């Protein structure tokens, strides 16, 4: 593999000019291409090569890693976005799936079943080009560029306050359902309710 050498500029480099920087880069390249022996001769064919990453200093290497296990799923796996037909109309996948494109680009695009889509989506996809949907990611195979999702519900027209708000709350896993009767019974029943003078006297008014 090619070795990329990055030079750091400082005040001394600026004083010496471009010729000094070129000399520094040339020296670095020579050091990488020569043997570490006393005579500085090039390596033999049967010896270790300098392009072996194991022989390079750590500063020339890019550290990489691989995710092997998910300890805890922090994301709700739900996202708001739009559905559209697949580009390849001749593929078998086109007959079974649609593409879900989330509004949040940090969330991957996902294949969703056409059975979850509106009945007239295939014949009139333009009618749903501006309709927000909630999709939950259920799987993402290692050999696929896209996740597999399941449409949960249609929120409504994009740009309106209620659908956008519901989408945000669903993505972050916020329960916005109605309060139960048990919770409502804890509230004052005689309405309109006003703060008593005694309660007001011991509180700080932040209105």
TrEMBL record:
GO terms for cellular component: P-body. This is DI3L2 exonuclease. Pfam families: OB_Dis3 (PF17849). One of its GO terms (molecular function) is metal ion binding. Gene3D superfamilies: 2.40.50.700. Keywords: Cytoplasm, Exonuclease, Hydrolase, Magnesium, Metal-binding, Nuclease, RNA-binding. Residues 98-173 form the CSD2 domain. It comes from Chunga burmeisteri (Black-legged seriema). The lineage of its organism: Eukaryota, Metazoa, Chordata, Craniata, Vertebrata. InterPro entries: Dis3_CSD2, NA-bd_OB-fold, RNR_Ribonuclease.
